[in-house]
Amino acid sequence: MDPTTPYDTIGGEPVLARLCDRFYGLMAETPQFAELRALHPEDLQGSRDKLFMFLSGWLGGPDLFVQQFGHPRLRARHMPFAIGTRERDQWVACMLLAMEEAGIAEPMRERLLQSFFKTADFMRNQPG
């Protein structure tokens, strides 16, 4: 079968789960992501699960987030958190490392990185 969605192309649920696990693992253990980590609750499991559910649908797989929580309303959900260019850049850098470690190959990794950057930039609600 020819993969038709990014979800299929990256390897579906197992690779997406590995990506989300690595993303939050890196965020928790890497000093350069300290400001990003500080925006999250002490227990990262809920954040990890929501990212997994969101990315599943965003990548063209099962729309788990919408089924459980309704429309993502990403910007509104992130408004309570001070997100500037530093937090955006940490999120994108953390996701890039997570994609590399999860085994997401080029050119899909670059395609996703561009989309992630645009989305992360849209979440900014601080000038710097």
Automatic annotation (TrEMBL):
Xref: CDD domains: TrHb2_PhHbO-like_O (cd14773)
A Pfam entry, by short name: Bac_globin
Matching InterPro entries: GlbO/GLB3-like, Globin-like_sf, Globin/Proto, Hemoglobin_trunc
Range of residues in the leader sequence: none
Keywords carried by this UniProt record: Heme, Iron, Metal-binding, Transport
Highest taxon in the source lineage: Bacteria
GO molecular function, one term: heme binding
Family note: Belongs to the truncated hemoglobin family. Group II subfamily.
Name of the protein described by the UniProt record: Globin
UniProt organism field: Thauera aminoaromatica S2
